[in-house]
Hints:
The chain is mostly helical. Helices cover 38% and strands 8% of the residues.
Amino acid sequence: MENKSVANPVGxxxxxxxxxxxxxxxxxxxxxxxxxxxxxxxxxQRRRTIPYLKIxxxxxxxxxxxxxxxxxxWTCKAL
Length: 79
């Protein structure tokens, strides 16, 4: 029987990846100078303006879903 080790299991590096708040900010805004603060993210979470999952006491985000939500709801359309 062949032993196949999987470096990246399915679903852990794609759009369904779950990340914490700090990793979400680093993923969506790689340039540190333009990155919003963790306080801003927590405020958006409190207001329920961005999608998140709460499992027990831990909060997780799907970067792809948050990016789509920001693009859909926070983008100003040109006239």
